Inverse folding.
């Protein structure tokens, strides 16, 4: 049976302010979905809500993994169940080396039932795998000894997130603007790496403003978010249209959502 | 003999009885009597004294404790710092009575002395007298210093003769019985060009044990000598810990002094490093983890008395529950101490909203060609950091533990003794529960 991440009529509020107004989205493992939309339309909110960020309050609807409602799960359970998000601005953890962080993370995600204090993946095996993955991403081996995201450039952070995805081998991955801050070559590498990990092994949701990352990861579906709703779904051609033409046609076609989106943007600007 | 010593508090009778049991040189007895009279004259410190303004000891009753009570049999707590370390010597004391003392022949044959200070003074009084009479810790500093100077017993001595490099760490464990009293005194003397590493730790026989520690530490690092000294305070949660600690670092000498402060109910410590010879260097590392209602107060003092000296102090504290830390740091540069390079920093990580950390750096500079900097930070474990780690499969608790250990990494990176880094890291990891909102 195909594994599925199913989002149904999802309503999400942040600090009491509604952001998502009923999002429906079904991702099957093996599919690539692009999520586009103007700034502030709620794209990252969707990602954070799927990951279980405590500041994102789900006020309605459901998120199901293979038919099981996961809303009551915390982020630990969700990540161990195979859901991953590459963040736009991942947090720095000073004093903790990337390799150390990832060895623990990889062990936990691959052995979801692991109790604290139980054995980690053997160091040799882990090192070998990490070095290999870093090689693919053309990352300096020194990177593994740096503190997690501490003093990383924008591009380094994004690459580090892809590296984490490669090590954790999730079933479902949300990439939140992983292409922004990367130069053309780096985007190419990231795309290759996603393909390498197995675009066909994962259900991927690519949140992006560009179509670069989509070139090598052609979306099966492109969704447009506006004012906290998915207003349109199409194929890869829709992604190209939005990238070259912008959102004017969409705004005109969905005036209600456009108005809601403007209200949200203004509210967040206050 | 010990039958005459009963629990009578710190009275004149108790002191006289204590003195009658000592078989010490006259100069030392005189020193004790002199200090005793200071002790009896002085009042207990109170919140009117600047150093004690933030440290309330009204619940401390000195009379509940006593001088040299009868020896108690206790089971020894596990030593943390010596795990996996090839030691050159070791000593154990209970309630500041030496119960075990060893030094490998390799070092004793080269003139190194290591063992209980009171025994050593009987055998090597003439050698040690000038060092004790330097009074690094002044008996008249306060009532606590006077009490220790008058009544110290047991204690640790490490003496390394000129040019001897002791490349195996030495270890001492001071244990206190529940309700016991520890009046230890540590004297370390490294003669010119000598080198040594001393790992000392203090612990109670029971994790929740009570008692009184009133101690002193004197470190004398002579010209060109190198001392690494580690001092892990891991008393039971009911212990009152009062200590005066002072180091003299001579010309071209180097001191690395690491303090781990984990235990006790209340600690009030004066840690003083004086750079007394040109080009002396001192690095001071502090690792503190507090919980429950613990109150740990550290007054640090970096005193630059000579030219071209360096001192670098980093204290890091993580605070859980309703605990409190006070760090008051002072860099004092004398008029003649030109080209001083001094640094002090204190970082605090709050693991609950009810914990409190006071951080009070200070500079007092009389020379005009110096580089002195200080800094302090206080922060909380960030919810976004926790969430991020949880999206990578960490449980919340694992995430907190990791963030706390990352916080201490900067100070661990400075500690050059692996067993010490590991022991401190593990001890802290075990204590971390979860952050409280």
């Amino acid at each position: 049976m195909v594994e599925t991440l199913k989002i149904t009529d999802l309503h999400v509020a942040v600090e009491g302010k509604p952001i998502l107004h009923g999002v429906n989205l079904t991702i099957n493992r093996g599919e690539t979905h692009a999520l586009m939309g103007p700034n502030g339309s709620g794209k990252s909110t969707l990602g954070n809500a799927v990951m279980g960020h405590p500041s994102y309050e789900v006020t309605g609807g459901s998120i199901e993994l293979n038919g099981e409602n996961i809303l009551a799960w915390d982020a630990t359970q969700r990540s161990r169940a195979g859901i991953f998000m590459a963040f736009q601005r991942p947090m720095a953890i000073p004093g903790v080396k990337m390799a150390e962080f990832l060895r623990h993370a990889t062990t936990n995600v691959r052995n979801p039932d692991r109790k604290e204090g139980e054995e980690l993946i053997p160091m040799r095996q882990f090192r070998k795998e990490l070095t290999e993955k870093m090689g693919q991403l053309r990352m300096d081996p020194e990177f593994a000894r740096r503190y997690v995201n501490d003093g990383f450039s924008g591009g380094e952070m994004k690459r580090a997130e892809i590296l984490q995805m490669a090590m954790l081998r999730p079933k479902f991955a949300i990439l939140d603007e992983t292409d922004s801050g990367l130069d053309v070559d780096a985007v190419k590498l990231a795309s290759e790496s996603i393909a390498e990990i197995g675009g066909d092994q994962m259900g991927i949701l690519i949140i992006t403003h560009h179509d670069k990352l989509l070139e090598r990861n052609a979306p099966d579906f492109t969704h447009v978010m506006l004012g906290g709703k998915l207003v349109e779904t199409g194929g890869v051609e829709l992604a190209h249209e939005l990238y070259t033409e912008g959102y004017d046609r969409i705004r005109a076609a969905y005036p209600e959502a456009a108005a809601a989106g403007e209200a949200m943007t203004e509210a967040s600007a206050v | 003999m010990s039958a005459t010593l009963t629990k009578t508090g710190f009275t004149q009778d108790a002191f006289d009885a204590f003195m009658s049991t000592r078989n010490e040189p006259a100069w030392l007895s005189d020193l004790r009597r002199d200090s005793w009279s200071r002790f009896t004259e002085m009042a207990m410190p109170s919140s009117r004294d600047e150093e004690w303004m933030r440290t309330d000891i009204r619940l401390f009753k000195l009379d509940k404790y006593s001088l040299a009570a009868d020896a108690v049999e206790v089971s020894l707590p596990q030593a943390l710092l010596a795990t996996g370390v090839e030691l050159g010597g070791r000593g154990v004391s209970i309630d500041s009575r030496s119960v075990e003392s060893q030094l490998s022949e390799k070092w004793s044959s080269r003139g190194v002395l290591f063992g209980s200070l009171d025994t050593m003074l009987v055998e090597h009084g003439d050698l040690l007298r000038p060092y004790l009479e330097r009074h690094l810790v002044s008996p008249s500093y306060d009532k606590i210093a006077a009490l220790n100077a008058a009544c110290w017993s047991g204690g640790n001595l490490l003496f390394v003769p000129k040019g001897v490099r002791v490349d195996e760490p030495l270890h001492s464990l001071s244990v206190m019985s529940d309700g016991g009293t520890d009046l230890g005194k540590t004297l370390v003397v490294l003669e010119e060009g000598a080198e040594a590493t001393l790992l000392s730790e203090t612990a109670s026989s029971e994790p929740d044990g009570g008692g009184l520690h009133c101690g002193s530490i004197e470190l004398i690092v002579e010209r060109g000598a190198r001392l690494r000294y580690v001092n892990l305070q891991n008393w039971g949660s009911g212990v009152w810990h009062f200590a005066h600690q002072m180091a003299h670092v001579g010309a071209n000498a180097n001191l690395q002094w690491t303090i781990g402060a984990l235990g006790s109910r209340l600690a009030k410590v004066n840690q003083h490093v004086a750079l007394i010879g040109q080009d002396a260097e001192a690095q001071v590392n502090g690792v503190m983890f507090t919980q429950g209602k613990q109150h740990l107060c550290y007054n640090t003092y970096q005193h630059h008395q000579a030219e071209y000296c360096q001192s670098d102090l980093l204290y890091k504290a993580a605070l859980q529950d309703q605990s409190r830390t006070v760090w008051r740091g002072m860099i004092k540069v004398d008029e003649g101490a030109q080209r001083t390079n001094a640094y002090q920093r204190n970082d605090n990580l709050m693991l609950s909203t009810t914990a409190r950390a006071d951080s009070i750096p200070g500079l007092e500079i009389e020379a005009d060609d110096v580089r002195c900097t200080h800094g302090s930070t206080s922060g909380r474990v960030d919810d976004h950091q926790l969430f991020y780690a949880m999206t990578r499969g960490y449980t919340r608790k694992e995430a907190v533990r990791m963030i706390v250990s990352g916080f201490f990494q900067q100070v661990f990176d400075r500690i050059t003794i692996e067993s010490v880094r590991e022991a401190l890291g593990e001890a802290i990891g075990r204590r971390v529960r979860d952050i409280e909102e």
